[in-house]
Amino acid sequence: MDTFFISHGSPTLSIDDSLPARHFLKSFQEKIFPERPKSILIISGHWETAEPTVNIVKVNDTIYDFYGFPKPMYQLKYPAPGAPELANRVKELLKNSGFERVNSDKSRGLDHGAWVPLMLMYPEADIPVCQLSVQMEGNGAHHYNMGKALAPLRDEGVLIIGSGSATHNLRSINPNGPRHVPWAREFDSWLKDSLLNGRHDDIKEYEKVAPYAKMAHPSPDHFYPLHVALGAAGETAKAELIHRSWSFGTMSYASYRFSTSTSTSA
Q1: Domain limits for position 170
Q2: What is the pLDDT of residues 171-208, one digit of tens each?
Q3: What is the CATH number for 160?
Q4: Do the Cβ atoms of 62 and 98 come closer than 8 Å?
Q5: Fewer CB within a 10 Å sphere, N or C end of the chain?
Q6: Cut 0.70: pTM above it
Q7: Domain presence at residue 8
């Protein structure tokens, strides 16, 4: 299995047909990845915990962790089955790799960083899904190492998806501004160049080397899922830009596929 980083951007991705990213995700099975996974592990920037945590549930509830949006968005459901076996396997792999504390949450469903893209990618909601949290006290290397620990899942039929945003500065969005502002474009271009040229160390230390890193990500929550997906693909992973679009002048929907030299492209 290849791994993926998906920029989910605004929650309106769930209903707004004017967003190119919505159409990209709806075509995911047909044009990007026709292979059906046994289960899905998704890492969302909207679940922050002190230690790595997985949800262990029979059926995933749909969490509406956004406010002031159109009413139809709160009526959407994504009742994908849970993946308890996968959750326990994630815990096992992380602990065996030196992560001393890995917790379980037996009531949490899927936040919008998980169910919104999955609703578009796998609308049947019939593939078991487990969600893994991010740690704000960690750094890029911490999350990259989480991904490395989870790499065996790829040979077990598990699709690993990091869900965040290539750029994520909500205070700077401007619906009436230019297509993309210079600082957002520069960070987005740096990210593409770094990934396509395999500069994983730069990605892990993006705060030090990326242009406008703090502007692009005032908080790293939406960037850490990329580190997990990249780490899971391995140090020799080949990155492919599979989608790029913009909204509000500063929000990049750039999404990537990571394959290893032993993978067969779908």
Answers
A1: 3-260
A2: 777 776 657 789 999 999 999 999 999 999 999 999 99
A3: 3.40.830.10
A4: no
A5: C
A6: yes
A7: yes
